[in-house]
Amino acid sequence: MYFLSMNNFRDCIYYKNVDLKNFCTIKIGGKAKHLFITYTTNALLKVCSYCHIHNIKYKVIGLGANLLFDDKGFNGAIIVNRSKHFLFKNNTLYVDSGAVLSNIISECTKRNLSGFEYFAGIPSTIGGGIVNSLGAFEHEFSNLVEYVICYKKSNLKKRIKIKKNECNFGYRTSLFKNNNYIITRIKFNLSFDNHNSIIERINLFLKKKTSTQPTNKLSAGSIFKRSNLIPSKVIDELGMKGKKIGGAEISIKHAGFIINNGNAKSKDVLDLIKYININVFNQLNQKFELEIEYVPF
Ligand SMILES: Cc1cc2nc3c(=O)[nH]c(=O)nc-3n(C[C@H](O)[C@H](O)[C@H](O)COP(=O)(O)OP(=O)(O)OC[C@H]3O[C@@H](n4cnc5c(N)ncnc54)[C@H](O)[C@@H]3O)c2cc1C
Questions:
Q1: Which of 84, 80, 113, 114 is nearest to 101 (CA)?
Q2: What architecture does CATH give domain 86-212?
Q3: Quick check: is 249 catalytic?
Q4: 222 is catalytic
Q5: With a 6 A CB cut-off, is 255 part of the ligand 1 pocket?
């Protein structure tokens, strides 16, 4: 009943019992009990407050490029953040967390601003990139950050500004990783460069990515974090490349990726993860830590 009144919320669309596979890159997941798409920061915060007041479990997501939803779905509200307003002032960028990285790369290129081109080809919103401390080929997203505007889930009325050195950015982790914050806006510092050099770097990094990773297949990116071991190398050396369970497969192109061949279930992916870790443990007495985030029911 609560949700009938949501029609009154501006800049927000509400769906009941909707398939989560349509809201993540690996295209796996059962139904979310409630799903909101919010188009402004105001709408995002209103929906979060609404869920909080009505004691509904909720999770804000971007493109779902790092997520594995459960086959049973999500027994609460998924809030898809599509708030994408941005403003450039000289070499600084103020951008909403729901802006899509590839669009921001295009906007920067138009203005001869360098910084984001190393991340070309990575599916991400700006907010998701902050939470996960996105990085590629020795370049870190966090290096560009000046501060993050966010709200604690426990106090959605208080706007907080967190400076870069307080964001606890680490390898694919940050202060925001614990699901206790809602990120709304970020200030980035970029640098001016020659237009053609920026375009060359975009093409170079896109090529690096597409030639080494299964970017044309359904996945959630690298399954495991690097440690003293490089997961793709170990999986390859232990002969697990190409192993399939149900519709899930360890990519032949890059053994650090598990791909969905079209009809994979979250259980297939989780079983394949278990299979890899059992083998790695038996051979090397170590386990890999997940880089993707499994979202339970
Ligand atoms: C083909 C492919 C290649 C990839 N390559 C790379 C790579 O090279 N480097 C790399 O680092 N990653 C890579 N990834 C992983 C993925 O792109 C990143 O983790 C990305 O930053 C996820 O962004 P997202 O917007 O999809 O976030 P989501 O996956 O939607 O969410 C990630 C987490 O952030 C939280 N979150 C999202 N937005 C907010 C917000 N506004 N406030 C609070 N919490 C929020 C979510 O709740 C979730 O916990 C790849 C993925 C794919 C599919």
A1: 84
A2: 2-Layer Sandwich (3.30)
A3: no
A4: yes
A5: no
Q: What's the CATH number for 231-295?
A: 3.90.78.10
- Which ranges of the chain does DSSP label H, i.e. alpha helix? 41-53, 101-110, 126-131, 195-212, 231-237, 266-284
123 lines ligand 1 (CB under 6 A): yes
Chain segment 98-133, per-residue pLDDT in tens: 999 999 999 999 999 999 999 999 999 999 999 999
Per domain, the residue ranges of the chain are 9-81, 86-212, 231-295
Q: Which fold has domain 9-81?
A: 3.30.43
Listed residue (84, 76, 82) closest to 58, CA to CA:
76
Q: Which of 83, 133, 222, 266 is catalytic?
A: 222
Question: Ligand 1 pocket test: which of 24, 61, 209, 224 has the largest number of ligand atoms within 8 Å of its C-beta?
Answer: 61
Q: What is the pLDDT of residues 205-231, one digit of tens each?
A: 999 999 999 999 999 999 999 999 999
pLDDT in tens, 154-163: 999 999 999 9
How many whole angstroms separate alpha carbon 3 and alpha carbon 15?
9
Q: What share of the chain is helix, strand, coil (3-state, %, to 5)?
A: 35, 30, 35
- For residue 126, give the nearest of 221, 45, 200, 60 by alpha carbon: 60
Residue range 52-61, pLDDT digits in tens: 999 999 999 9
The C-alpha atoms of residue 100 and residue 85 are separated, in whole angstroms, by: 10
Distance 285 CA to ligand 1 centre (A): 30
Q: Is 227 a catalytic residue?
A: no
- 165 pLDDT higher than 50: yes
Q: Which residues contact 263 (CB under 8 A, 6 or more apart)?
A: 246, 247
